[in-house]
Amino acid sequence: MSSVEREPLQQVVVTLDGPHEAVRTVCGELDQHLAQIGRSLGVRINRRGAELRVGGDDGSVHLAASILGQLHTLALARFPLHISDIDQACRLVQRDPTVDIVDLFQDTVFVPGRKRNIFPRTPMQRAYIQAIRDHDLVFGVGPAGTGKTYLAMAMAVGALQRDEVARIVLCRPAVEAGEKLGFLPGDMAEKINPYLRPLYDALHDMVGYDKAARLIQRGVIEVAPLAFMRGRTLNEAFVILDEAQNTSSEQMKMFLTRLGQETQAVVTGDVTQIDLPPGQISGLVEASRLLRHIEGIAEVRFSKADVVRHRLVAEIIDAYERKTRAERAAHGLDEPEPQPETQSEPAQQPDPGQEVEGDLEA
Length: 362
Known about the structure:
By secondary structure, this protein is an alpha/beta fold. Helix content is 41%, strand content 14%.
């Protein structure tokens, strides 16, 4: 275990006990992990063997010491740490100094054959994963970059590898995002491929290009536009509907009534990026209002605090949210309720994955 010794002049000494391999995992190649912590928290970290001297503002120093101690615990458990994990750990501790990084990162989604672990990077992502484990139908709603589709895909592939389902069905509505592409060349598969590319990207990252191609050829994994779901019954399947904010009310009803025996479904979408014609209600918004209190259905809402892409993505989302609020205020409209940054428990089922306060804004 690591020991922390406080010294005067806003300096903390962190000693990393244990094998050298664990120390190297915490510090990174050429101490790049220490450099990342220093940049993120505005502290100076000087290393002498297994002894780390952290200097800077009092609050930042002790945040850095907390991160180093928790990273050391992960390293002793042989948890592989990458520079992106260090950056995310700093973000988490800056938002909530009491967060348990060890407990969060060790809640691994097991995908056989994958080199890197897949694990929740925010408490809300963890609630999302737990909701998928505990419910037959889960709505994951939030801005881009929060891992909605990626984590759902990881859970689907894991379930397939464990023989919990017989196939994976991936679909999304074929709606253009603000620009008209006209007639696309090629056969039907080639025409719909651009709309389904994000699903293919996540799938290839999970199982590799060659294996994904074989599974698709055998029909074990099916990637199709939402329109192809009409008239079908999906049994023993893990079904993911992506970009669900662009479904119509009729399409959403059609999709949800396709679910058969031993089938699990995840519906993901971002209600701030609706590309439907003006005046047409989003099927995702309507379904959230109608179905949230039904037992067996969970809803998890993400916020910009859950963005795990580049740091700028969260700031970009924040800037557009400020613009929207200013425009609504200028037109005398009510301020939209901000999305919660933490998960609140529903009144009926005290489940960490079910979020039910307030209607989604169209």
